Amino acid sequence: MSSKQGSLSITSENIFPVIKKWLYEDHDIFIRELISNGCDAISKLHKLDIMGEVSLPLDYKAKIQVTVNPEDKTLTFVDNGIGMTAEEVDKYINQIAFSGATDFLNKYKDKTSEDQIIGHFGLGFYSAFMVADTVEIDSLSCQEGATAVHWVCDGGTQYQMDEGDYDQVGTKITLHLNEDCLEFSNEYKVREVIEKYCSFMPTEIYLNKANAPEEYETIDASDLRETDQVVEEIHEDARYEEKEKEDGSKETVEVSPAKDQRKIVKRPVPLNDINPLWAKTPSDCTDDEYRDFYRKVFMDYKEPLFWIHLNMDYPFNLKGILYFPRINSEYESIEGTIKLYNNQVFVADNIKEVIPEYLMLLKGVIDCPDLPLNVSRSALQNDGFVRKISDYISKKVADKLSGLCKTDRENYEKYWEDIAPFIKYGCLKDNKFCDRMNDYILFKDIEGKFRTLPDLLVKPKESEAETSASSDSAEDTSSESKSQDGQDTKGDSSDGSNDSDRSDDSDKRPEAKAETEENAPKEPEKKTVYYVTDEQQQSQYINMFKDQGMDAVVLNTTIDSSFITQLEQRNEHYQFRRIDSGLTDSMTEDVSDEDLKEANEALTALFRKALGNDKLSVSVAKFKDDSVSSLLTQEEERRRMQDMMKMYGMAGMDPSMFPSNETLVLNVGNELVDYLFKHPDADRAEDFCHQLYDLAVLANHPLSPEEMTAFIARSNRIMLALAK
Ligand SMILES: Nc1ncnc2c1ncn2[C@@H]1O[C@H](COP(=O)(O)OP(=O)(O)OP(=O)(O)O)[C@@H](O)[C@H]1O
C-alpha cells in the first residue's frame, strides 16, 4: 500500500454522545462550564480594555445573570463580556474541541498574562446538551460595528446560524431543558449548584426567577445609591412625650427622632465572593476575617484553633488557607474538608493527590491555577507535579507548627490536645512530616508539664536517673539483669524468660544472657523515654518514679502505640518503654544476684506452687521503697504486639503466638515478702501469695470477673482471720 499522511477527523455524530454522557460525571457541571465561559468572556473584555483595544463605559460593571424560567422550562446565562461575531461562533462553537481561549492568548501573548482564563479544552459549552434539548446563543461582539449573531442547535449535528437582534455587548445562552432535567429550572437547585462550584469565581453572579413578583426593602435615605429604584419616599416626624421632672415640673422630650427613608426595589445580591480571602496577602487579613471566612465556607460555628495561610508564586502558583478545627470531645469524629479550586473555580473536595492524606482532617481551601486538570476539571492528570504540590503543603504545615512551638509555646501547649491527633496521624502517614515535626511534638509528663523530645532527652533530673540506670547497664552488667533494649531492668522478661525454665535455673537468668550476648554486636546506647498509658492504674509505678526523681510521659490515646513505634523507627538514639516494662536501677538497692539467689529460688517455687502455675515468671529484687511488696512487669515489644492485636481485632490470630509476658517482681525488702521467704509453710501462705499476685496485677490491668470474685473472697478470709 502506498504511504499516506493526513489529519484525523472526528465525526460529530459520534463524539456528541461521548461529551453528553461520559465527559462530565455530574450533570450539575454544565452550570460551572457556562458560568466559566461568561467569566472568561469578561476577563477577555477587561484585558482588551486595559490594552486600549476597546473602551468600556464608565458605569460598566461586569456581571453574569442566571435566570430560571420554570414556565418556559428554560435556563439562561447572560454575560456582558467580549461577545462573539458570527465568524467566532463558527470557529469556536461549530468546531468542537477548539478553544477560543488558546486563540485569544496566542493573539495577545506579549500583552497579557495567561492567568484568569479558565477555558482550555474547547468542550465545556457542549455540556449544556447534557440537560437541554435545544441550546440558543445570542451574542454581540465588542468589536466596533459588529452585528449580532443568533445560533441554535437541537443536540443533533445540525445548527442554524443567522444574524440576530441581540443589542447588548456580550452573550446570552438559553437552554431549553429536556424533560428529565427540569429541576434546573428550579431557583433553589440552581442556587445550590452555583454556590457549590462558583462561590469564589472572579465575576459577580446573580440569580433570578423570570416573572417573579418584585421584592422591596426599606433603607435610610442617606444610604440611597444611584442605581436604586425608589418605589416610595417615607418621612416620619420625630415623636415627643411629656415627662415629669424630679422637682415635679413637666418637660417635653424626644422619644424617637424624625426618619427619612426610601422603599426601593430589593438590591440584587451576588451569590459569590469575587475576592476570596485566600487571594489576599496574609498580612492584610485580620483574625476576624479568617474566622468569618471559616464560618461561611464550612458552616462550622465553632471557632477554628488557628490557621495557615499558604501563599506562593514560585515554582508554582498556590494559595490557600488551612484551618485546624477545634475538637470538642474525643468521641466526635474528625471530618475535614479541603476544597480545591483552580483559578477560583471549584474543582472538588478532598482530592487526595494534592492534599496529604492526614491533612484531610483539617478544613481548608487551596487554589492552584497550575493544576494539571483533565477535561472534566474534576480530576487531575499528572502525578509528578501534583506530588510536589502535596509535599509543599505538608512542609508548610510543619513549618507553621514548628514555628508556633518555637515562638509561641504558650499557645502551642494550649492547642496541643486538639492538634495532637492531626500531628500524630501525619507522622504516621508521612515520614518527611514526621522528621520535620520530631522535635516539636509535645508530651505531657506525669507532673502535667509539656515537654518536647529534646527536653525529655536532656532533662537534668532524668538524665541523672538515666545515667545511673544506663551507665550501670553499660559498665556493670554483673549485678543486674539487662534487657534487650540496653536499659537495666529487673523482671523484664524480654529474653522470653516467662517460660517455665526461668528463675529457678540461674543459667537462664538475664545476666547469663548478657554474658552470652557479649560477643554479639552491641546496639548503640539508647536513651529511654518512659511512658504511662493509664495514670490511675499505673499510679504505684508513677509514685516510685516520682520518688526517684524520674520522669515519664502520658500516652493514653489509641494512636500512641503506633505513633511511638514510628518515632523509634525514625530515631535510633531513643526508645519508649512503658513505666511497667521493668525496674530501673535507681529504684532498687545494689544487691548482687548471688545474695538474692536463695530468695529467688525459694519464692519462685513457693509462688508457682501456691498459684498452681509452674510457668509463672518470678523475679526478686530489693526495692528502695520497702512499702511496695510486689509488682508486675511486662516486656515492651510483646505488650505492644498484644495491644495491636486487641486494637485491630486480629481475629483468627492465635493469641499463643504472643504469650503472656508478665513477670512478678517481689520485693525482698518488704516485710510480708520477707516473712513468706522465711516461713514458706506459714498458715495462709497460699492466700498471701495469691493476694500479693493479685495486688501486683491490679496495679497493672483489671482483674477478670472470676479473679475479682476470688480476690474479694480471699480478702474477707484474711480480714476474718485477723479479726479473730
Ligand atoms: N459566553 C461566551 N462569550 C464569548 N465567547 C464564548 C462564550 N462561550 C464560549 N465562547 C467561546 O467558545 C469557545 C469554546 O467554549 P467551550 O466552553 O466549549 O470551551 P473552553 O471554555 O474554551 O474550554 P473548556 O472546555 O476547558 O471549558 C471558548 O473558548 C470561547 O472562545
TrEMBL record:
Protein name per UniProt: ATPase/histidine kinase/DNA gyrase B/HSP90 domain protein
InterPro entries in alphabetical order: HATPase_C_sf (IPR036890), HSP90_C (IPR037196), Hsp90_fam (IPR001404), Hsp90_N (IPR020575), Ribosomal_Su5_D2-typ_SF (IPR020568)
Regions annotated as coiled coil: none
Biased composition (Basic and acidic residues): 482-528
Region (Disordered), start-end ranges: 239-260, 461-531
Binding annotation for ATP: E33, N37, D79, M84, S99, G100, T171, R377
CDD domains reported in the protein's UniProt record: HATPase_Hsp90-like
UniProtKB keywords: ATP-binding, Chaperone, Kinase, Nucleotide-binding, Transferase
GO MF annotations in UniProt: ATP binding; ATP hydrolysis activity; ATP-dependent protein folding chaperone; kinase activity; unfolded protein binding
NCBIfam families cross-referenced by the UniProt entry: PRK05218.1
Family affiliation: Belongs to the heat shock protein 90 family.
